[in-house]
Design a protein that fits this description.
single chain; 96 residues; mainly alpha; 4 helices
Length: 96
């Protein structure tokens, strides 16, 4: 019985020496991958970046018509996003 108590005492006293601090798992980058629509819009922005003001104004007028004639809210949002990109490009080029 004495040996059992002695070995139990040793186990309890040595347990904190072997116990380590539990650290959380390293966090992974949780930024969501861009959607196909976001990738397509970024490609559109890259294409119109080099257009002159005349081309941007023509594109703007065509997109305005498409926004107004869009059959659904999804289509309207699609064309509106592109119209916003054209308006931003016009502003960067200081177009009238």
């Amino acid at each position: 019985m004495r040996i059992f108590l002695f070995s139990l005492l040793i186990v309890f006293l040595s347990a904190p020496a072997f116990a380590g601090e539990l650290l959380p798992f390293p966090e992974q980058d949780r930024s969501p991958a861009p959607s196909p629509e976001q990738q397509a819009l970024e490609g559109f922005r890259n294409k119109i970046r080099s257009l002159d003001c005349t081309s941007l104004n023509e594109l703007r007028m065509g997109l305005r018509q498409r926004v107004n004639q869009a059959p659904s809210s999804f289509d309207r949002g699609y064309y509106q996003n592109r119209l916003n990109a054209v308006n931003n490009a016009r502003a960067q080029n200081n177009c009238p």
